[in-house]
Amino acid sequence: MAGPIAIGIPERRYDVSSIWICRISENKSGNVFNLRVGTSLANVIPEYHQLRYVDVDVKARESSEWMSTRALLDSGGQGSFINHQLSTRYQLPCLVKPTPLSLILADGSPSKGGNVTHFNPLVLRIASNEEAIGLDVAPTTHDIVLGIPWLEKHDPTICYDHNTMTFDSSFCRANCTHFGKSIPLHKEPSPAESFSWQLGVQERDKGYRSRKVLPPRNLSEVSRPQVTRDVPFPNSVDETALSVPSMVVSTTPLSKASPSLSPRKSKPVRW
Question: Residue 88 and residue 44: Cα distance in Å, rounded?
């Protein structure tokens, strides 16, 4: 009966720098021996490959204009997302989530973008098939991310060697017009998305180059002590708060607000 997997050291006639994966087995007579099933691990290094994107179109249900981009296929995400700037730019319909979500990164730490409080109810079109989908609005680096819910529902066959995705599941046979179709997978995001990344880097570098170093101020030039205030004046707008996409500005009048209500707890979601 086969035993557990173990790491074995080869015989002396082999190079001692080679490490082999061995399976400890037992023959009919009860003698234990090592069966070599692996290969050398001395030169193994981590590998990195490009992500995969698929061409998609999205629109509001009542709209006739489609917005085309590429969506990242993410089998490690518990949900599907849309970039908050993209959602705002195209003025997509936005609804408040009943329960906010806190995004948990791969290292277990929460996302610095804050909780996800809104989502876009949209129509998603892939390979001529149209379906309703809710995309959480989040500060992602990709235009759209299709996570486990979408991948599990359609269960497509993905061939990374040929960069194709085929819709051949029983669900697609019964519910989708793209059943039997194969579409290409791309190793690059949409050109507009790539351009925005490059533009952001260029603007950042331009700002660094234009930054001037001011000489230290002489205390004699200061006519009066500098006064700092931690609390903004009433009726003033905090520009920092408005720049944070996860912050929600309530439109409820103060007279109708209930101070006894405690804030809703967020539900953690890994992505």
Answer: 45
> Which residues partner with 157 through β-bridges?
166
H helix intervals, 145-190: 148-154, 170-175
- 174: confidence class by pLDDT, cuts 50, 70, 90: very high
Q: Quote the CA–CA distance of 83 and 136 in Å, as a whole number.
A: 9
- Residue with tokens 């806190």, as numbered in its chain: 102
| Percent of the chain as helix, strand, coil, to the nearest 5 | 20, 30, 50
Tell me if 267 sits within 8 A of 100, measured CB to CB. yes
- pLDDT score for 29: 54
* Residues 9-58: tens digit of each pLDDT: 444 444 434 444 444 455 555 555 554 555 678 889 999 999 999 999 99
List the domain boundaries for the chain. 1-46, 53-189
Strand order in the sheet with 164-166: 157-159, 164-166, 182-184
**3-state secondary structure (DSSP) of residue 148:** helix
Q: Using a cut of 0.70, tell me whether the model's pTM lies above it.
A: no
Let me know: does 134 contact 79? Beta carbons within 8 Å. no
CA atoms of 157 and 163, how far apart (whole Å): 11
How do residues 97-120 score in pLDDT, each as one tens digit?
999 999 888 888 988 888 999 999
The single-letter code of the amino acid at 64 is S
Sequence-ordered list of residues with C-beta below 8 angstroms from that of 176, at least 6 positions apart, any chain: 129, 131, 154, 167
> What is the topology classification, in CATH, of domain 53-189?
Cathepsin D, subunit A; domain 1 (2.40.70)
pLDDT confidence tier of residue 221, bands split at 50, 70 and 90: very low
